[in-house]
Amino acid sequence: MEPSAGDAAFMVAAVERLKNLADNPDASPLIEGVEIHEHSARIGHERVIVAGGTPDITVSDFFTVSPEPVYDAVIGNPPYIRYQDFSGTSRTIAAEAALRAGVRLSRLASSWAAFVIHSALFLKPGGRLGLVLPAELMSVNYAAPVRQFLFDNFADIQLVLFDEQVFPDAEADVVLLLADGYGQGPTGEASVRLTKNAESLASLSDEAVSWTPPTASGKWTGSLAGATALEALQALSAQDAFVGLQTWGETTLGIVTGSNKYFALSPQRVIQVGLSHSDTLPLSPPGSAHLRGLALTTQQLQRLGQEGKSTRLFYPKQPLSPAAAAYIQAGQDTGVDTAYKCRVRKVWYQVPLIPPADLLLTCMNADTPRLTTNEAKAHHLNSVHGVYLAEDHRELGCELLPLASVNSVTLLHAEIVGRAYGGGVLKLEPREADVWLTPSPDLVAANAHALRGVKDQVGTLLAAGQLLDAVQVVDDVLFHSSDGVALRYLDAVREARERMAHRRSARGASGR
Ligand SMILES: C[S@@+](CC[C@H](N)C(=O)[O-])C[C@H]1O[C@@H](n2cnc3c(N)ncnc32)[C@H](O)[C@@H]1O
């Protein structure tokens, strides 16, 4: 059965396959389909006959066809209609169809999501679903209930991912979903295979990585890393060599001022408006370009200030000095007090302070998220996250975690837990940072001496923009001792990171 039969390419292929399996050239397998456009349905019908099959194509909106659980297999490539264009009655009907299977789809869901659910309802117990779907099945939030549904209802889930774009003209990358054993779930794992392109599908290897998503509905993008690299991550976290950043401490959002232009001041500006030093606090200036090294020191902050960067946060002492009162008046005169975030405060010019963090974590990254020790004890805005280390780990973490994090495993895992944003930027939210794999306190402690030995060298490489050379140095320190697990897998980990970072920036460049 083909739920969106179109010109019947899938139905024709199915006829050929069934004839082969029957080992009888005279067999005329019955293939059913649904297609909303009558013209396509007619062409499809003819093609199935020419191929030697018996077609039965219903011209209808698939979502108005009542599911009968009678089919061995449902195959196809459902239409991909973005939610903006998927509206009115057709969306309501599709959402209701999904709801009949107990799946509540958000209004943001594209048409394919409801197709997956409704298609499954046509399967006999034990039946199979084979669909070509947009790769966003793996990642978008609105597909979470679809991912959950698949894991809940099928006994076996296989995914085939492509390195190259399969349909260069199509808007979306695709994945193959092969789900078997309908009604015999749940399953906790999927098998994932990567292949280069449509041609290489013919020689798809039987070797798949068995992969368990952290939660059934969670993102499946981790599977893109490929078998060996995922095994390495699993092995390293199983032996506690790598742990989520949360083990080290809490990551939180920075200060929201309501107007960085007003509240973040350069030292020159502080003098110009006559504020005293004590009316301001040290600040990591907006942006994160200055946080690409291992530490933000007091000297660096001073240098940034001399360069005119906004390294002071307006936070006036009480009682107000005449200069502070004048600056506040100037803010009111220019309407800063009416900006939403200012307006909702008890005292509009008193930004809610967050204590200086132990480490700063960049959240928007062209290459990879960076941890930097906040030696300058600067406050930080919401362009970076603050990491507050647990008491037990503070000393070691401040000294060595930024350095130890410059390794291949941590870089790869950032690609997995982070999100690709416009322009190919990798964004990391605090809750993603919590699970981001960093070297464990034990691993760092065990290698502390050697890490100290390479700290200057890595700092110099980072300052020169040679991230991957710096990674190589840290890898050499960390992985010769960690049971050889990572060492064995290191090439695969590097390759996976390279592939994922490359895909991210290539997509960014093409505007997707
Ligand atoms: C990506 S194409 C599938 C092509 C098909 N596999 C073939 O071999 O030609 C999607 C098809 O779904 C059809 N379609 C779109 N919305 C539909 C709906 N609600 N019910 C049934 N068919 C629909 C479109 O007319 C189009 O032919």
What would your notes on this structure say?
With 512 residues, this protein is an alpha+beta fold. It folds into three domains: 61-225, Vaccinia Virus protein VP39 (Rossmann fold); 232-254 and 356-512, no CATH class; 257-353, no CATH class. It is 39% helix and 19% strand. Strands 3-4-6-5-7-8 form a six-stranded mixed beta sheet, with helices on one face. It has a four-stranded antiparallel beta sheet with strand order 10-18-14-16. Helix 2 (38-50) links the parallel strand 1 and strand 2. Helix 6 crosses helix 19 (485-509). It is elongated and about 95 Å long. The protein starts with 8 loop residues before the first helix and ends with a helix. S-adenosylmethionine is lined by residues 4-10, 34-37, 40, 61-63, 76-77, 79. It catalyses: a 2'-deoxyadenosine in DNA + S-adenosyl-L-methionine = an N(6)-methyl-2'-deoxyadenosine in DNA + S-adenosyl-L-homocysteine + H(+). Residues 218-478 form the Type II methyltransferase M.Eco57I C-terminal domain. This is site-specific DNA-methyltransferase (adenine-specific). InterPro entries: DNA_methylase_N6_adenine_CS, M_Eco57I_C, MethylTrfase_TaqI-like_dom, N4_N6_ade-DNA_methylase, SAM-dependent_MTases_sf. Its EC number is 2.1.1.72.
